[in-house]
Amino acid sequence: MAKSDNLTRKIDKRLPGELVAFIQHAGRLADSKGERLYLVGGVVRDLLLDKTNLDIDLVVEGDAIALARELSDDEAGKITIHKRFNTAKINWHGWSIDLASARKESYARPGALPTVKPGSLSDDLCRRDFTINAMAIGLNPGGYGRLIDPYGGQKDLGGRMIHFLHQKSFIDDSTRIWRGLRYEQRLDFQLEPETLRLLKRDIPMLDTISGDRIRYEIECILNEEFPEKVLRRADELGVLAKLEPALKGNGWLAKKFQPAREASSPSRPPAGLYLALLTYNLNSEQRDKLISYLRLPGALTKTLQDTAGIKDKILQLADSKIKPSAVYHLLEGYSTQSLTANLIASDLPIARQHLRLYLDKLRTIKPILTGNDLMKMGVPQGPRIKEILNRLFDARLDGRIKTRQDEEGLVKPG
Prior knowledge:
The chain is α+β, with helices and mostly antiparallel strands. Among the domains are: 1-158, Beta Polymerase, domain 2, CATH 3.30.460.10; 300-364, no CATH class; 371-411, no CATH class. The protein has helices spanning 4-14, 17-32, 42-48, 64-75, 121-126, 153-158, 169-172, 175-187, 193-201, 211-222, 227-237, 251-264, 271-278, 284-294, 298-312, 314-317, 324-331, 336-345, 349-360, 371-376, 383-397, 404-411, and strands at residues 36-40, 56-61, 78-82, 87-92, 95-101, 103-106, 115-118, 136-138, 147-148, 161-162, 190-191. The strands form three sheets. A seven-stranded mixed sheet has the order 3-4-5-2-1-8-9. It has a two-stranded antiparallel ribbon with strand order 6-7. Helix 2 crosses helix 4 and helix 11 (227-237) runs antiparallel to helix 12.
């Protein structure tokens, strides 16, 4: 066990001073109420790894909502309460702090959401996924900075291991399979041998989990710095095939994810772009099945369908003789993410040139003259207006006209 003063120094080093002051005040307030308050979860793990993690999760052996209300009043913060789960979120000075009452969980059946009851810190740590996430740090005066580590999480951090808490872990909640792979690849750890054996054994239990919950885990993976590492590992172990047997986490995917990051820099690529690349080589039946299974929201569904629509036109776009106006009309209306996905995924140089032309130039081009301008020039109101505007637009896209005078000359007879 790490010494209390060592963790105190890590807290001071890795958390901003105002957050340190907040959790110290919270610990004193909890103590005055006869309650015990703890820092828990990923922030504890990352403090021990000497990494910065500003996702602050607190657990109190007591009433989280009442404590959050007092803290919010004291610190002039905004509070969001979830009475059903006895949790609260405090937004304070731009920081977000989650506060929950310690609880214990039971599972009526594999894959079901747990039944939650009030409990102790021991109960709360017992319900977590892996030993490295089942540690806490005391925040009350007299015990501030003390590590609570009932499952040997600190030892597993030292051994760079992802280790389950109990034999039924993946049966109770098989989303932990995806989370285990995510932590393994993010931290550059290894699944502990028995954990790996049970993970492989329990892959079929993923069928007990709803598509919504699996989608959340996939979205978390796509928010990692290098999601292709998790997907490659999931492919190796047969986990990825539970999403769709035709999905691959191979070298092709890794080569495409890197340009996606470059195209999105300095931000991380949106989930839609990564998903479009992940599903790029699926056929329509496989893609529609995956969309339905994951219950993808409308925007993500459109991105995947748009990506497939553009891919269906890729041979037309690969024609070196195609005019810019034709390129525009082939690509008009498709989402930027689907255009970018095809630009990255296609191996046809001419098609990629045309996609780049559309993204960088064609989609911003508009005629100068308007319908009102045409009527002032003597064009009668009616379908003729639209016909001329379309002709002007195509001429401008193809570079045959560039100025207002050019447009007017195209409109006037002779």
